[in-house]
Amino acid sequence: MNGTSDFMACWDYDQPAASAERFLALLPHLEASGDRQTLLELKTQLARTHTLRHQFSQAHALLDEVEQHLTEATPRARLRYLLERGRTFNSAGRRAEAQPCFEQAWQEGLRQHEEPLAIDAAHMLAITLPSVDALRWHQRAIALAERSQREEAQRWLPSLWSHLAWSLFDLGRLDEALALQRKSLGWYEAHGRQRQAFRARWSVGRILREQGAIEPAWAMQLALKEAMEQAGEAADGYLFEELGELARLRQDPELGAEEFFARAWFLLSRSEALASDEPERLARLKRLAKL
Protein backbone atom coordinates (compact mmCIF):
# COMPACT_ATOMS: atom_id res chain seq x y z
CA MET A 1 0.00 0.00 0.00
CA ASN A 2 1.31 3.44 -0.83
CA GLY A 3 -0.99 6.18 0.33
CA THR A 4 -4.40 7.69 0.18
CA SER A 5 -5.54 6.41 -3.20
CA ASP A 6 -4.95 2.84 -2.07
CA PHE A 7 -7.00 2.93 1.09
CA MET A 8 -9.82 4.87 -0.57
CA ALA A 9 -10.17 1.92 -2.95
CA CYS A 10 -11.33 -0.09 0.08
CA TRP A 11 -14.61 1.86 0.16
CA ASP A 12 -17.99 0.38 -0.62
CA TYR A 13 -20.39 3.06 0.52
CA ASP A 14 -23.32 0.63 0.36
CA GLN A 15 -21.50 -1.71 2.77
CA PRO A 16 -19.96 0.46 5.52
CA ALA A 17 -19.40 -2.41 7.94
CA ALA A 18 -17.39 -4.37 5.36
CA SER A 19 -15.47 -1.20 4.48
CA ALA A 20 -14.65 -0.71 8.15
CA GLU A 21 -13.17 -4.19 8.35
CA ARG A 22 -10.88 -3.43 5.43
CA PHE A 23 -9.79 -0.13 6.98
CA LEU A 24 -9.09 -1.82 10.30
CA ALA A 25 -6.93 -4.40 8.55
CA LEU A 26 -4.77 -1.59 7.16
CA LEU A 27 -4.23 0.19 10.48
CA PRO A 28 -1.26 -1.89 11.73
CA HIS A 29 0.60 -1.35 8.45
CA LEU A 30 0.12 2.41 8.56
CA GLU A 31 0.97 2.64 12.25
CA ALA A 32 4.24 0.83 11.54
CA SER A 33 5.00 2.92 8.47
CA GLY A 34 5.26 6.22 10.31
CA ASP A 35 3.06 7.90 7.67
CA ARG A 36 1.09 10.02 10.14
CA GLN A 37 -0.97 11.91 7.57
CA THR A 38 -2.25 8.81 5.76
CA LEU A 39 -2.95 7.10 9.09
CA LEU A 40 -5.08 10.04 10.20
CA GLU A 41 -6.85 10.18 6.85
CA LEU A 42 -7.72 6.50 7.10
CA LYS A 43 -9.16 7.07 10.58
CA THR A 44 -11.43 9.80 9.22
CA GLN A 45 -12.81 7.27 6.74
CA LEU A 46 -13.24 4.73 9.50
CA ALA A 47 -15.27 7.40 11.32
CA ARG A 48 -17.38 7.78 8.19
CA THR A 49 -18.27 4.09 8.29
CA HIS A 50 -19.76 4.73 11.74
CA THR A 51 -21.63 7.79 10.48
CA LEU A 52 -23.18 5.78 7.66
CA ARG A 53 -24.41 3.29 10.26
CA HIS A 54 -25.79 6.13 12.44
CA GLN A 55 -23.20 5.34 15.12
CA PHE A 56 -22.59 9.01 15.74
CA SER A 57 -20.95 8.82 19.15
CA GLN A 58 -18.37 6.34 17.83
CA ALA A 59 -17.72 8.56 14.79
CA HIS A 60 -17.22 11.67 16.93
CA ALA A 61 -14.95 9.81 19.35
CA LEU A 62 -12.71 8.70 16.50
CA LEU A 63 -12.68 12.20 15.02
CA ASP A 64 -11.76 13.63 18.43
CA GLU A 65 -8.77 11.30 18.42
CA VAL A 66 -7.78 12.44 14.92
CA GLU A 67 -8.15 16.11 15.88
CA GLN A 68 -5.65 15.72 18.73
CA HIS A 69 -2.93 14.64 16.28
CA LEU A 70 -3.47 17.17 13.50
CA THR A 71 -0.50 19.48 12.83
CA GLU A 72 0.75 21.76 10.08
CA ALA A 73 2.42 18.67 8.61
CA THR A 74 -0.97 16.96 8.11
CA PRO A 75 -3.01 19.48 6.05
CA ARG A 76 -4.90 16.93 3.95
CA ALA A 77 -5.82 14.94 7.05
CA ARG A 78 -7.24 18.14 8.53
CA LEU A 79 -9.30 18.65 5.39
CA ARG A 80 -10.72 15.13 5.59
CA TYR A 81 -11.33 15.58 9.31
CA LEU A 82 -13.44 18.68 8.63
CA LEU A 83 -15.44 16.85 5.97
CA GLU A 84 -16.20 13.85 8.17
CA ARG A 85 -16.99 15.95 11.25
CA GLY A 86 -19.45 17.89 9.12
CA ARG A 87 -20.94 14.73 7.64
CA THR A 88 -21.44 13.27 11.10
CA PHE A 89 -23.21 16.40 12.32
CA ASN A 90 -25.35 16.52 9.18
CA SER A 91 -26.37 12.87 9.33
CA ALA A 92 -27.45 13.38 12.93
CA GLY A 93 -29.67 16.29 11.86
CA ARG A 94 -27.33 18.94 13.28
CA ARG A 95 -27.04 21.03 10.12
CA ALA A 96 -26.15 24.29 11.84
CA GLU A 97 -23.03 22.61 13.26
CA ALA A 98 -22.22 20.87 9.98
CA GLN A 99 -22.19 24.00 7.82
CA PRO A 100 -19.10 25.69 9.33
CA CYS A 101 -17.15 22.44 8.93
CA PHE A 102 -18.00 22.28 5.23
CA GLU A 103 -17.33 25.99 4.68
CA GLN A 104 -13.89 25.64 6.26
CA ALA A 105 -13.21 22.46 4.26
CA TRP A 106 -14.08 24.33 1.05
CA GLN A 107 -11.60 27.09 1.87
CA GLU A 108 -8.92 24.60 2.94
CA GLY A 109 -9.45 22.54 -0.19
CA LEU A 110 -8.97 25.56 -2.43
CA ARG A 111 -5.91 26.69 -0.50
CA GLN A 112 -4.32 23.24 -0.69
CA HIS A 113 -5.28 22.78 -4.38
CA GLU A 114 -7.19 19.66 -3.35
CA GLU A 115 -9.99 20.16 -5.87
CA PRO A 116 -11.77 16.79 -5.34
CA LEU A 117 -12.06 17.41 -1.61
CA ALA A 118 -13.09 21.04 -2.10
CA ILE A 119 -15.82 19.82 -4.45
CA ASP A 120 -16.93 17.31 -1.82
CA ALA A 121 -17.17 20.16 0.71
CA ALA A 122 -19.24 22.36 -1.61
CA HIS A 123 -21.50 19.41 -2.44
CA MET A 124 -22.07 18.67 1.25
CA LEU A 125 -22.67 22.31 2.06
CA ALA A 126 -25.33 22.42 -0.64
CA ILE A 127 -27.05 19.41 0.94
CA THR A 128 -27.38 21.28 4.24
CA LEU A 129 -28.90 24.42 2.69
CA PRO A 130 -32.31 25.37 1.27
CA SER A 131 -32.68 24.80 -2.46
CA VAL A 132 -32.07 28.43 -3.48
CA ASP A 133 -28.75 28.55 -1.59
CA ALA A 134 -27.89 25.00 -2.63
CA LEU A 135 -27.96 26.08 -6.28
CA ARG A 136 -25.07 28.47 -5.72
CA TRP A 137 -22.90 25.85 -4.04
CA HIS A 138 -23.68 23.16 -6.61
CA GLN A 139 -22.76 25.62 -9.35
CA ARG A 140 -19.48 26.47 -7.61
CA ALA A 141 -18.64 22.78 -7.33
CA ILE A 142 -19.49 22.14 -10.98
CA ALA A 143 -17.36 25.09 -12.11
CA LEU A 144 -14.39 23.80 -10.11
CA ALA A 145 -14.80 20.25 -11.44
CA GLU A 146 -15.03 21.50 -15.02
CA ARG A 147 -11.85 23.57 -14.83
CA SER A 148 -9.83 21.05 -12.83
CA GLN A 149 -7.23 18.95 -14.63
CA ARG A 150 -7.60 16.14 -12.10
CA GLU A 151 -9.63 13.15 -13.19
CA GLU A 152 -10.96 12.51 -9.68
CA ALA A 153 -12.39 16.03 -9.69
CA GLN A 154 -14.00 15.59 -13.10
CA ARG A 155 -15.58 12.31 -11.93
CA TRP A 156 -17.71 14.38 -9.59
CA LEU A 157 -19.61 15.96 -12.48
CA PRO A 158 -22.48 13.47 -13.00
CA SER A 159 -23.25 13.40 -9.29
CA LEU A 160 -23.17 17.20 -9.13
CA TRP A 161 -25.47 17.50 -12.14
CA SER A 162 -27.89 15.14 -10.42
CA HIS A 163 -27.85 17.02 -7.12
CA LEU A 164 -28.27 20.34 -8.89
CA ALA A 165 -31.20 18.79 -10.74
CA TRP A 166 -32.91 17.91 -7.45
CA SER A 167 -32.44 21.47 -6.19
CA LEU A 168 -34.07 22.71 -9.39
CA PHE A 169 -36.80 20.08 -8.95
CA ASP A 170 -37.58 21.45 -5.48
CA LEU A 171 -37.91 24.91 -7.01
CA GLY A 172 -40.29 23.67 -9.69
CA ARG A 173 -37.80 24.13 -12.54
CA LEU A 174 -38.59 20.73 -13.96
CA ASP A 175 -37.35 21.14 -17.56
CA GLU A 176 -33.89 22.17 -16.33
CA ALA A 177 -33.88 19.36 -13.78
CA LEU A 178 -34.80 16.79 -16.43
CA ALA A 179 -32.05 17.99 -18.80
CA LEU A 180 -29.43 17.68 -16.05
CA GLN A 181 -30.58 14.22 -14.98
CA ARG A 182 -30.41 13.06 -18.58
CA LYS A 183 -26.92 14.53 -18.84
CA SER A 184 -25.91 12.62 -15.72
CA LEU A 185 -27.45 9.42 -17.11
CA GLY A 186 -25.56 9.83 -20.37
CA TRP A 187 -22.25 10.20 -18.53
CA TYR A 188 -22.81 7.09 -16.43
CA GLU A 189 -23.83 5.02 -19.43
CA ALA A 190 -20.85 6.23 -21.48
CA HIS A 191 -18.48 5.29 -18.65
CA GLY A 192 -20.01 1.89 -17.91
CA ARG A 193 -21.25 2.86 -14.43
CA GLN A 194 -24.28 0.60 -14.44
CA ARG A 195 -25.48 0.99 -10.87
CA GLN A 196 -25.27 4.78 -11.02
CA ALA A 197 -27.00 4.71 -14.41
CA PHE A 198 -29.88 2.77 -12.86
CA ARG A 199 -30.29 5.48 -10.23
CA ALA A 200 -30.16 8.18 -12.87
CA ARG A 201 -32.85 6.40 -14.91
CA TRP A 202 -35.07 6.31 -11.82
CA SER A 203 -34.48 10.05 -11.39
CA VAL A 204 -35.45 10.80 -14.99
CA GLY A 205 -38.64 8.80 -14.53
CA ARG A 206 -39.45 10.58 -11.29
CA ILE A 207 -39.21 13.99 -12.95
CA LEU A 208 -41.34 12.80 -15.85
CA ARG A 209 -44.04 11.84 -13.34
CA GLU A 210 -43.85 15.29 -11.80
CA GLN A 211 -44.29 16.80 -15.26
CA GLY A 212 -47.43 14.74 -15.78
CA ALA A 213 -45.84 12.46 -18.39
CA ILE A 214 -47.28 9.38 -16.70
CA GLU A 215 -47.00 6.84 -19.53
CA PRO A 216 -43.34 7.62 -20.40
CA ALA A 217 -42.50 7.54 -16.70
CA TRP A 218 -44.31 4.21 -16.28
CA ALA A 219 -42.51 2.69 -19.27
CA MET A 220 -39.16 3.91 -18.00
CA GLN A 221 -39.58 2.53 -14.47
CA LEU A 222 -40.86 -0.84 -15.73
CA ALA A 223 -37.90 -1.08 -18.09
CA LEU A 224 -35.59 -0.17 -15.22
CA LYS A 225 -37.08 -2.92 -13.04
CA GLU A 226 -36.46 -5.47 -15.81
CA ALA A 227 -32.93 -4.22 -16.45
CA MET A 228 -32.04 -4.42 -12.75
CA GLU A 229 -33.40 -7.95 -12.50
CA GLN A 230 -31.41 -9.03 -15.56
CA ALA A 231 -28.27 -7.47 -14.07
CA GLY A 232 -28.77 -9.34 -10.80
CA GLU A 233 -29.29 -6.17 -8.81
CA ALA A 234 -31.13 -6.38 -5.50
CA ALA A 235 -34.76 -5.26 -5.48
CA ASP A 236 -35.04 -1.54 -4.79
CA GLY A 237 -37.75 -0.22 -2.50
CA TYR A 238 -37.71 3.26 -4.00
CA LEU A 239 -38.34 1.82 -7.45
CA PHE A 240 -41.35 -0.16 -6.19
CA GLU A 241 -42.61 2.93 -4.40
CA GLU A 242 -42.43 4.88 -7.66
CA LEU A 243 -44.17 2.10 -9.57
CA GLY A 244 -46.92 2.19 -6.95
CA GLU A 245 -47.37 5.95 -7.36
CA LEU A 246 -47.54 5.59 -11.13
CA ALA A 247 -49.97 2.67 -10.94
CA ARG A 248 -52.29 4.81 -8.80
CA LEU A 249 -52.19 7.60 -11.36
CA ARG A 250 -52.81 5.23 -14.27
CA GLN A 251 -55.88 3.74 -12.53
CA ASP A 252 -55.48 0.47 -14.40
CA PRO A 253 -58.10 -1.95 -13.04
CA GLU A 254 -55.95 -4.94 -14.01
CA LEU A 255 -52.81 -3.70 -12.27
CA GLY A 256 -53.39 -2.34 -8.79
CA ALA A 257 -50.86 -0.31 -6.88
CA GLU A 258 -51.12 -2.29 -3.64
CA GLU A 259 -48.61 -4.95 -4.60
CA PHE A 260 -45.99 -2.38 -5.56
CA PHE A 261 -46.51 -0.47 -2.31
CA ALA A 262 -46.29 -3.71 -0.33
CA ARG A 263 -42.94 -4.55 -1.90
CA ALA A 264 -41.76 -1.00 -1.28
CA TRP A 265 -42.81 -1.12 2.37
CA PHE A 266 -41.20 -4.52 2.91
CA LEU A 267 -37.87 -3.33 1.47
CA LEU A 268 -37.76 0.20 2.86
CA SER A 269 -38.95 -0.71 6.35
CA ARG A 270 -35.61 -2.50 6.81
CA SER A 271 -33.82 0.84 6.69
CA GLU A 272 -33.06 2.17 10.18
CA ALA A 273 -32.28 5.58 8.70
CA LEU A 274 -35.63 5.82 6.92
CA ALA A 275 -37.50 4.58 9.97
CA SER A 276 -35.81 7.31 12.01
CA ASP A 277 -35.98 10.16 9.50
CA GLU A 278 -39.20 9.48 7.58
CA PRO A 279 -41.59 7.34 9.65
CA GLU A 280 -44.57 9.02 7.97
CA ARG A 281 -43.36 7.81 4.58
CA LEU A 282 -43.23 4.23 5.77
CA ALA A 283 -46.63 4.53 7.43
CA ARG A 284 -48.11 5.84 4.19
CA LEU A 285 -46.61 2.97 2.19
CA LYS A 286 -48.08 0.45 4.62
CA ARG A 287 -51.47 2.12 4.41
CA LEU A 288 -51.44 2.21 0.59
CA ALA A 289 -50.37 -1.43 0.55
CA LYS A 290 -53.42 -2.22 2.71
CA LEU A 291 -51.25 -4.26 5.05
UniProtKB/TrEMBL annotation:
Domain of life: Bacteria
Pfam families found in the cross-reference section: TPR_5
Stretches assigned to the Tetratrico peptide repeat group domain: 82-184
InterPro entries per the UniProt record, alphabetical: TPR-like_helical_dom_sf (IPR011990), TPR_5 (IPR041656)
SUPFAM superfamilies found in the cross-reference section: TPR-like
Protein name: Tetratricopeptide repeat protein
Protein species of origin: Aeromonas simiae
